[in-house]
Amino acid sequence: MQEVLGAGDIAVIRISEIVDKLMAGNNLYQEKLDKETVMEILLNLIEKLSP
Description:
Layout: H1 7-25, H2 27-32, H3 35-49
């Protein structure tokens, strides 16, 4: 059965991919922050900027 994803789910998936790339290429992110924290920060910013 196919799963239907909402706009919020798609945003989380895309942000997760971006965070993975940031963390893979930057030692600061790897050492100081975990993926969950970075995703939470980005999602909060998107919510504030969304109409």
